Amino acid sequence: ESKITELAKLGYVAMAADVYGKGIHPRDAKEAGVLATMYKNDRKLLRAHANLALDELKKQNHVDTKKLFATGYCFGGTAALELARSGAPLLGTVTFHGGLSNPTPADAKNIKGQVEVFHGAIDPYVPADEVAGFKKEMDEAKVQYQFTAFSGTVHSFTEKAAGDDISKGAAYNAIADARSWETMKSVLK
Length: 189
Known about the structure:
The model has no long low-confidence stretch (mean pLDDT about 95).
């Protein structure tokens, strides 16, 4: 069952944004990585696409435009943070094993709501200097944020298909998956 479906069952209007754009469908993980890197290198474009998705969500029936949250996993977490950094009217942003880098840290001052980050403490794809830079950015902008790092946990900790071999840098962690999801639900409430 997808996280979108789970959110809908909880009573939320949930939407998965297609950040890549109409008709762009990566064939495999390698091609998806190339596209994600393109957007990570062009934050203006990433923010524009994320804001277009938010605009579409706001048009949907039953959406309370005063109670908007963004969440994402991996590259989706990066996109959610960029949406917040763009100044979107979000009450909160929740990321799961997402990238944290920001070429323009001063943009954190644009964040309107709280930020909740769930991170694998030994995630090789989001190294310690990126984590330190993120925390510094949030602190300097006086953003209300919580940063949870799960010990012994790497990237993709919410993905069962990632397997359980942390030496590969990406692996499922049932405890981190369950705790991060339950915490996000409490943040949404």
